[in-house]
Amino acid sequence: MGKLYLIPTPMGETASWDAALPAGNRAAIDSIEYFVVENIRTARRFLARSGIGRTIDELTFAELNEHTPAEEVEALLDPLTKEGKNIGVMSEAGLPCIADPGALLVAAAQRRGVEVVPLVGPNSITLALMASGANGQSFAFNGYLPVKPPDRVKAIRHFERRAHAENQSQIFIEAPYRNRKLFDDILGACDPRTMLCIACDLLEPGQYIRSQSVAAWKKNGAPAFDKRPAIFIIF
Amino acid sequence: MGKLYLIPTPMGETASWDAALPAGNRAAIDSIEYFVVENIRTARRFLARSGIGRTIDELTFAELNEHTPAEEVEALLDPLTKEGKNIGVMSEAGLPCIADPGALLVAAAQRRGVEVVPLVGPNSITLALMASGANGQSFAFNGYLPVKPPDRVKAIRHFERRAHAENQSQIFIEAPYRNRKLFDDILGACDPRTMLCIACDLLEPGQYIRSQSVAAWKKNGAPAFDKRPAIFIIF
Description:
- The structure is a homodimer.
- Helix content of chain A is about 35%, strand content about 20%.
- The first copy, chain A, contains 9 helices and 10 strands.
- The first copy, chain A, starts with a strand and ends with a strand.
- The interface between A and B is large, with 61 and 61 residues.
């Protein structure tokens, strides 16, 4: 039986392999001809840039993303379970299976006793958390907040309470075009003393990571984070 | 003013730079002569092995760990704020400021408007989560569980409820010599259908990552995880 390799990719358009990925990841990639990826175009581009030892056309790609029906996930393992081949899993950016649907494939692999091999790479959640000064001994990643205003404010207040009551840093993401909306909602809903970290364009030239109180954010204004991928941490 | 670099180190005794760290991290290390580290001996050994361009004796080290009084943390930034030098932060293993006390120094840096630069490296929490098949779109790292039996069982049940009610993967660590105890406590306290991932010796030759139901763990028995660093995930 083959192994399931979880292969990180760089984040952002400009990030080089040397800045974002261990050199040793190339050896794993070179052992794989079958890839399950969040987005085929992105994955092919990454592999083409990586200087791997084969032409991309020798490789086979299948997509697994939010449009994949759950009942089709199991069959994506066939090359591994039936033909003994390794499979590589790649997300659009960063670590696969974190903040993306790749975990469904890993769960299927674990059910069948397949060896799963995670490789080291960049992750915006941990990079932002490290640099925030927020508690890194207890933290939660909560993905996206609800979009409807009353639910959203309720959720922000819920996570703010949990941040303080449990001393647990609360991490969120938002669609980049809604960063300003989330910023305004947090400033409107949270106690002035609550701390907010905003981290955007991680590992990119414009990287920005700033933690201050809600009161200080109100005074100093929003960062230039429009349409830039951002992480928000309340603590 | 200098910058505060957060410098990951390999996990485990055998991990090589190429397997665990981007080549580019060396350039950041080469810009630094002042380090704040969790353990000076470990940090010196890491730098000696890294083939950096200077002798270790030219470098200055200060320790920041669980024995450091909170009021002494701020002064560790003096070389940066007063002399304009970069500072590098390193933990015992993996990403600094996650599951270690380094966050206190970053918080002080953020208060003073210092630029904080997180580098890419290995993290046992995300490696285990990726490979577990547990939900990676919502998860919490909870550090250590209470040691006293009644509090411990109560905490396990609390986190099991949260795992199911919020579909939030619940991640824990334990002192390696107590792995078996935690395993038994989880098997005793949790519903047979609850999923448990055990990941140990990540990135080491004996790497083991297995997810199965509590019922299946009861039937199949404990892994050989005595005194090996392990991550536990309930989902």
